[in-house]
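agent: user wants the structure for DUF3397 domain-containing protein from Paenibacillus montanisoli. delegating to structure tool.
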Amino acid sequence: MQWIWESIKHVYAFLAVLPIIPFLLVYFGYGAITGDRKKAFSTAMDVTTALLIGCVEVLFNRIFHSSFGMYGILLIMLLGGGLLGNVQYRMKGSINVKRILRAIWRLGFFLMSICYVILMFIGIGKSFLTA
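agent: tool returned. relaying tokens verbatim.
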């Protein structure tokens, strides 16, 4: 049973190292099956967000010698959800949780993409300086 868990971790790690690959695979694969490019793009974003969260967490923890990466990401996402919920309640008088979760997940894609690029450059630069 241990080998199954290890295999899953290795596949996740492989896909998370270069998140553009699973994004393109899902985008073109789902787009070819359904023919709906807009839905394919949003599905690719959703899948890639999970990979980016893990990758940004590991990069953050390794660069800053910390274990706060996942907690920081969750904190930012929860604060964003609270702020969006507050705005939605003030504008419409009610809260649509599904819509807030989708918005936070999609905003997380863009935030994690930016963090991924920045942390990757910092990590590469740091490795050249110490080598």
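agent: one observation worth passing along. The CA atoms of residues 33 and 40 lie 9 Å apart.
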